[in-house]
């Protein structure tokens, strides 16, 4: 299933008509199980590159850096948590500094216990186990947002990885006397800095945009917030990268935005699974064409044989439409433009699952719905979310796995 970039990345989809033929941005769950996008092991001295002599300086920069990571304690209230820190960042890092000398994700020290945030004010609430670095299985009661008529649960597991690079966030805010909800799952790669930045900042940016331009559509505000945030990550030279799957809810309208290969699945009351997003991987024909047009190379389904996702936050080395090597490329190798849809909630809509690729590497949308739906009525949303991630690990997922389940039309 490919990603189809266009001049307008926002599509309005009405819930009254939900067939994939009528609305190509809403897909039937035909996506097969897929291979992990984790970076391949590769020798940086043998990177597959173009023969264009003008690009040799860029390719040479991929090979000359010191890639040894070190661990540093992060400041303030999170002093008990350690995360990997690279050397002092330079304005334009090279791709191998992200993935290490052998093209692998850099590992750091074993993470410590989770941290939880408290509500930010009387008019806003924040559920943020996103700052934790290890496993997060919180068997507390479901979180109910009565004004939004929904209940949700969130969980994250590091799985077989040494570090959990995933982050997630659930936040609500009252804007112009109307409640608004924001949910996001951020699948980091190369490290945690971008996924952590997203969990701490993206929802704030979205709420700010919505406050300043309340007449704009929910989808357009979500898209603008994501574009603004990716630019901020570039300007601040935040290292690493992250995919994102985000859900915004206001009144009877929801918007879903995807950047990368995480997914959002909607289940209706007849048990049908609807895939609400497009996949941004360099195995998709449209993404391959975009990368090649930008003077990039796709080898074994990866950009330069290393990076297996074609759109993401961060990955500043691959944002080649600007910076040191902008004149040598015809655009970004890793895109930052999300795919966004907006639709009206229907009484037939039951729940939405936001999940990273560690979940969907081993489960199709149909399989996910078949697992989640019967459990929601028996044990609640939070426990179901935790069980879902454990099930993904039993099925053989080797990645971090994170998910948020949002049950719609909840009556308190």
UniProtKB/TrEMBL annotation:
Pfam families: PP2C
Membrane topology: Peripheral membrane protein
Subcellular location(s) of the protein: Membrane
Gene3D superfamilies the record matches: PPM-type phosphatase domain (3.60.40.10)
Gene Ontology molecular function terms on file: metal ion binding; protein serine/threonine phosphatase activity
Main localization (coarse): membrane
Domain of life where this protein originates: Eukaryota
Alphabetic keyword roster: Hydrolase, Metal-binding, Protein phosphatase
Entry keyword Metal-binding: yes
Family: Belongs to the PP2C family.
Designated name of the protein: PPM-type phosphatase domain-containing protein
The organism's taxonomic lineage, starting at the top: Eukaryota, Sar, Stramenopiles, Oomycota, Saprolegniomycetes
């Amino acid at each position: 299933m490919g990603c189809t970039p266009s001049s307008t990345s926002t599509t309005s989809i009405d819930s009254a008509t939900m067939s994939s033929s009528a609305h190509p941005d809403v897909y039937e769950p035909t996506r097969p199980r897929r291979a992990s996008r984790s970076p391949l092991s590769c020798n940086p001295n043998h990177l597959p590159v173009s023969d264009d002599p003008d690009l040799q300086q860029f390719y040479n920069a991929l090979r000359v850096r010191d890639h040894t990571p070190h661990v540093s304690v992060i400041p303030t209230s999170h002093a008990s948590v350690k995360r990997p820190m690279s050397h002092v960042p330079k304005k334009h890092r090279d791709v191998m500094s992200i993935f290490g000398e052998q093209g692998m994700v850099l590992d750091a020290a074993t993470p410590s216990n989770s941290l939880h945030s408290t509500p930010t004010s009387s008019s806003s609430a924040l559920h943020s186990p996103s700052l934790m670095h290890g496993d997060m299985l919180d068997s507390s009661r479901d979180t109910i947002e009565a004004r939004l008529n929904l209940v949700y649960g969130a969980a994250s597991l590091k799985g077989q990885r040494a570090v959990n690079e995933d982050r997630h966030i659930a936040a609500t805010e009252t804007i112009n006397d109307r409640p608004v909800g924001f949910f996001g799952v951020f699948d980091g790669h190369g490290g945690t800095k971008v996924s952590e930045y997203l969990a701490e900042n993206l929802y704030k940016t979205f709420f700010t945009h919505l406050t300043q331009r309340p007449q704009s559509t929910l989808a357009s505000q979500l898209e603008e917030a994501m574009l603004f945030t990716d630019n901020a990550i570039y300007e601040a030279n935040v290292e690493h990268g992250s995919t994102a799957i985000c859900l915004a809810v206001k009144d009877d309208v929801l918007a879903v935005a995807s950047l990368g290969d995480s997914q959002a699945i909607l289940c209706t009351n007849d048990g049908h699974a609807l895939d609400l997003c497009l996949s941004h991987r360099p195995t998709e024909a449209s993404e391959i064409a975009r990368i090649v047009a930008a003077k990039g190379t796709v080898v074994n389904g990866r950009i330069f044989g290393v990076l297996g996702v074609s759109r993401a936050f961060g990955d500043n080395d691959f944002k080649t439409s600007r910076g040191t090597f902008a004149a040598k490329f015809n655009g970004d190798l890793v895109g930052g433009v999300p795919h966004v849809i907006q639709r009206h909630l229907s009484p037939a809509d039951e729940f939405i699952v936001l999940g990273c690729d560690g979940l969907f590497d081993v489960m199709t949308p149909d399989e996910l719905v078949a697992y989640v739906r019967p459990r929601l009525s028996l044990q609640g949303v939070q426990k179901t979310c935790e069980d879902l991630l454990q099930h993904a690990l039993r099925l053989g997922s080797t990645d971090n796995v994170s998910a948020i389940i949002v049950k719609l039309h909840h009556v308190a």
